[in-house]
# Entry
Amino acid sequence: MATTKAQAQRPTSRRWAALFFIGLAQLMIVLDGTVVNIALPSLQRDLGISDGDRQWIITGYTLAFGSLLLLGGRIADYTGRKRTFLIGLLGFAGASALGGAAADFEMLLIARALQGGFAALLGPSALSLLTVTFTQPKERAKAFGIWGAVTAVGGAIGLLAGGALTDYLDWRWCLYINIPIALIAAIGGYAVLTESRHAGRARFDIPGVLLVTGGLVAVVYGTGRAESDGWGSAQVVGLLASGAVLLAAFALVESRVPQPMLPPRLIADRTRGGAYLSVGLAMVGMFGAFLFLTYYLQVVKGYSPIRTGVAFLPMTVAVLMSAGGLAARLLPKLPPRMLIVPGMLLIASGMLWLRTMETGTGYVEGVLVSGLLLGVGAGMIMPVAFNYATHGVDQRDAGVASATVNTAQQISSSIGTALLNTIATSATAGYLASHAAQGGSPALAKQAMLEGFVTAGTWAAGILLAGALIVAVLMNTPRPEDQAVTEDAEGTGPAKDAEQALAHP
# Structure
């Protein structure tokens, strides 16, 4: 009995310290999705990267991350979440060092893909460690409020850090900065985290890994090629069709293998399905906004990288206040869709606000308003979605449930960035072609670029509005108090979570 009590108290005494180091790792993962955004114009010139290829500096990371996350989640479940967390941190640091030393586009792309691969180990292990550490509803709401704020604000912090590092040092430091962060998180995590794993011999779903990875790569690469080849080209149609077939085969395999990489029971739940969908669509809007507003501020408005980063600060503050204050307080009291749907509508409004902006629009009436709408909306979605994406799952599936929501986040970022960048560049090219008689003045080029951003932003808003409607209908989850009574009666609530955590330390 004394041993059991000590096991129960040990994570309690260290849980908030553990949250700090887990959150630091999550910040690094999310930050790296955008820290190079502001550096893109500089590194694009330095390494001679074309406009069509520039997106791969972003999507090379998010694609490798997203396509390997499910495997990373299963590795964490069976080989130990703490061990996987530490390996992911050290590998991420090494890949960042390689990227910082890149001499050409190919070397940088390889480094970004390696970062994504190690992030696929790190992301699900971090979130599953958080899930098994915080099981009481009020503390869980507070912890996931902090986690959601870190996730939502990390992108904006990446933009600020990228601007400062690019302006005062060099774009390469946007990658080198990960090394000290990873080492601090690894040292602290080694000291305070408690190991947990699923009992039993690990059996990995290799066919599932190959099918889902191949399918996701084909879809994202096909979307990216549409910019240069056109949506109707044989290569693009072939890639998209191949991706759809591979993903359909993955779904079939997962329903038949004894130990699937993604158990169908996880995504069949309406609550978790709604959470995955809302995270994915929120990332489409946020990453599209980061890309467009960065180029709008630097190319159209002539901002320096550091000034561009500072321009995103109000968005960062809005995310912190919304996620850490509003969402964390309301999460234990309201059904999840009462926070997620308004959040998605706010992000859509932020994208539609681009339609009011001209090349001469001031910061306050343009970027500031859009950023505040985006920040408040993301802050309302992230804590709720991450909480419900992992809430009530069996401890043996904590890693893969965490991986699934991270997959939704990263793949949506990849596909969203590729799709919206393709729409934007196509609209820009169309505008230039229709105004060719006016000559090739810099003013016309800026107006054409803005036209592309507005067009893509409108598409993003339409996607988000459709998603808000789907979530409103799909995610019919009751208030947490009502749900807790049902879950504890069925043996799936927080009390059962704690019991299982002790059973499989």
User: Anything to note?
Assistant: The chain has 20 helices and no strands. The CA atoms of residues 366 and 462 lie 20 Å apart. The chain has a mean pLDDT of 78.
